[in-house]
Task: structure prediction
Amino acid sequence: MKTTHTMALAVLASAAVLTAVTETAAAADSKITILYDAFGTDAAMKKDWGFSALVEVAGKRILFDPGNDGETFAANVKAKGVDLTNLDFVILSHRHSDHMAGLGHVLTANPKIKVYAPREGFGIFGSSLPSSFYRKDESLAPEMRYYDGKPPDVMKFGTAWQGANFETIDKTTEVAPGITLIALVSEAPGTRELKELSLAINTSDGVVLVVGCSHPGIEKIVEAAAAINPKIHLIVGGFHLVVATDDVISKAVTALKDVFKVENVAPGHCTGEPTFAALKQAFGSRYIYAGAGTMLQLGSSAGIGERRGERPALEGDHLTTYRKLARRENPFRTLAQNKQCRKMGRKLNSRAVTII
Ligand SMILES: [Zn+2]
Ligand SMILES: [Zn+2]
Result:
C-alpha cells in the first residue's frame, strides 16, 4: 500500500518534493496533535466528549485544553508519548469541564506550569478585586464591618486548583512573539457572559487558529484573528455548531469560506456532525480530518494541502500532511504581531513565505 502510494507520488512529484515529504514525517517540528475528542481513527486513543490539543510550533510546546476526564486524558497523553513535564504553557479555553477536567493530571506532572485562563470574576481559576469595590459604612461597630473595617487592599478569591500558576487574561494578548490569546465573551443564550480564549499563531503561512468551543461564535473569533493577519491558514478545534440549524450552519460555513477566505479547516469537538458534512462539502480537500490521535503536520512550501489529485501523504499513519516542509531550519516561524504586520496584512505575509 505504502509502496503503491510512494510510486504514485513519484509520478506526481519531483525527487526533491519526495525528499521533503519524507522529511515531514521525520522532522515533525511543527505540529498539532489532537489528544482528546469523541471521534477519531487511532485505536490507541480513548474517545470521549471534550477537547485537547498539543500545539508544537515555533519552538514552543503548548497544551490547549486538557480534556474532559483526567484518566482518559492521561491514557491518551501516554498513547501519544506526550511529555507533560516539557511544556511551555497550558491554555484553558474556558470554564466548561469538557475543556479543563484533565488539568489535575497536568499539574501532577508539572505543578508550576504557567496556565492561561480567561479572567472571570469570582471564577474557578481564581481572581482578585480591590477592596474599594464594596461600599463602606464607617458608622458601624467594627464587628459589623467586613475585616473589622480594615480590609486588605486586594481581596483574593480562590481557585479549584490551589497552588497552580494561573495567569488570567481579560483582553486579547500576545503572550509570546506571534502567539496571541484572543479573549472574547459569549453573547449566546445559555452561555451569556462566558469568557473564552482562542489561540492564534501568526505564521509565515497565515494565522493558525486553535479554538476550544467557540462559544463567542466562530465568526467573531475568526474576525479577531483576521485583525492580527487577514490570511487565515488553518482553524482547528470546536466550532460550536453541534445543535445549530442548517441555516445557521450554512451561514457560518459561507462566512468562513467566502468572507474570511479561510484556507484550511480541521474541525473537531462541538463542531457537529451536520457541520462536518457542510464544511467537507465546502472545503473539499482543504477539509483536514482531525480526530483524537490525529497529528497535523505544519509547514511551509509553495503548495497548499495535498496537491490536486494527490491523497494525503501519510493517511494510514494518522498523519495528515497538508503542507510539505521544505528543507529549512524554522519551517513554521511566527511573525511578530505588530502594527506594520497588521497594516500590511496579506502583502507582508506573502513576502514572508518567499523568504523562508
Ligand atoms: Zn464549552
Ligand atoms: Zn466543549
In short: The CA atoms of residues 30 and 57 lie 5 Å apart.
